[in-house]
Amino acid sequence: MSGTAEVQVRPGVEADLKALTTLYNHYVRETPITFDTEPFTPEERRPWLLSHPEDGPHRLRVATDADSQEILGYATSSPYRAKPAYATSVETTVYVAPGAGGRGIGSLLYTSLFDALAGEDLHRAYAGIAQPNAASARLHARFGFRHVGTYREVGRKFGRYWDVAWYEKPL
User: Residues with Cβ < 8 Å from 28, sequence gap 6 or more?
Assistant: First the structure.
């Protein structure tokens, strides 16, 4: 496959849970992109899935291959922090399946996510990017995020410390 013509983006549903968990667990096991260190079972990830309904400020968008329906990636908007004054802020993230990078899937997912959020009472989106990750920084810049600071050596995984760069975008 080439390009994005064969990719569809839609809300995530319960039937996606196993595939979404498998995709996420790749990043847990193989990369510092997430600071989770132990893989999840689909049942352990169910509360995460259910916290992203089809409406409201906390969404899950899924990219699938139009023919096979294989999940190629997902994007979410989640609560930024639990305290009430943060309610108009969200943290966004994108995960693209191994082997599906470089096809514009992250851009399709973020376009869909931000379109879905356009009518919500939201003021800012934030994204934390474990460093180094130039591809993610470029994606976020394309969507109007700007770097606001870096937490140095904030997480330890794979026997070393990792920085996280923080980005924000007005909504």
Answer: 34, 36, 37, 38, 39, 40
Scan for tokens 């993230």, then name that residue. Answer: 93
pTM higher than 0.90: yes
Query: Does the N-terminal peptide bond of residue 132 adopt cis geometry, omega within 30 degrees of 0?
Result: yes
CA gap 122, 117 in Å, rounded: 8
1 confidence band (pLDDT: 50, 70, 90): very low
pLDDT at 51 over 70: yes
H helix count then E strand count, the chain: 4, 7
**Contacts (Cβ under 8 Å, ≥6 apart) of 94:** 73, 74, 75, 106, 109, 110, 136, 139
